[in-house]
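Field notebook, page 329. I keep forgetting to write these up properly, so this time I am using the form the group agreed on. The chain and the ligand, N-carbamoyl-L-aspartate, are recorded exactly as supplied. Prediction of the bound pose follows.
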Amino acid sequence: MNHRRTGPITSPHLPLGDRRDAPFYGRDILEVAQFRRSDLQYVFGVAREMREMVARVGSFDLLKGKILANLFYEPSTRTASSFFAAMERLGGSVIPISEVRYSSVSKGESLPDTVRTLECYADVIVLRHPEVGAAKMAARYARKPIINAGDGIGEHPTQALLDLFTIFEETGQVDGLTITMLGDLKYGRTVHSLARLLSLFDVRLNFVSPDVLPFPTSILNELDQRDVPWEAHSDLEAVLPQTDVLYVTRVQKERFEDPTQYAAVKDAYVITPDTLSRARPRMALMHPLPRVGEISMKVDSDPRAAYFRQMENGLYVRMALLAMVLGKA
Ligand code: NCD
């Protein structure tokens, strides 16, 4: 969000009823580095209230009259529909632009111009884009808040927030846990954001991937600077017995230039009931979804399978974020 063009948040043009003192009011959500531990407690507190309200009344008018533009240049089921549902359940409305081929983007319109257009009609823009840094770039042009819903292999901050919220809800705490990330750690943006967010806590991280899909060195260096202990492996069995949270990811087919390379690694790891027989009895098994074979459906009925609860949490966390950014929480 371009603050030069909006002025300070104490602007007399502040919409009626907005809370100037609300944390994250009017701010972009671009990367997890924006969040401190105290912010996380706040977001998760609001998310729990949202869950209560949805269970009790379904929808309520906190964001009545507000409009969200949901701009997706890459496929999405959960992120797009949970932002959509979040806005609707808060009484607001949505301009969905997920078929960019039917918008002026297909005529060659640039991202800055598309964003400058949508912000004339909407109060907040959720953006998913294939290029790293796209959300940051859009935010430089926008007067309204931009929420990064995934920028290529870069970050996916709202997913990391719902992942961390899920870890809290499943295990009761984060400090002291050993968290193992498994699969495509090179291209998977969710693990890039989640590892950074977890570096605010006293955790041990394991990165298990095929040799050709390692966790990025640049983020490992960030973890070293924060004294987060980590290990890299290619064999899950080496760390499974000590793992409290197993976070499985999909091999990101769309990021491979050579389809034979994808084919060589796509089935590198598959979680089955047999795998879980060697895991801790209270382990939380997570996945941002979609899964394409990394977790057998036979595992779904195991109480440790947390991925459906995880995706439901996405609704409550995104309701919290929209309410905060729009000054109502
Ligand atoms: C993830 C994404 O888009 O990065 N999905 C999601 O947002 N829930 C993970 C993936 O696509 O594999």
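OBSERVATIONS:
- Confidence is low (pLDDT under 50) at residues 4-14.
- The chain is about 35% helix and 15% strand.
FOLLOW-UP: compare against the apo run.
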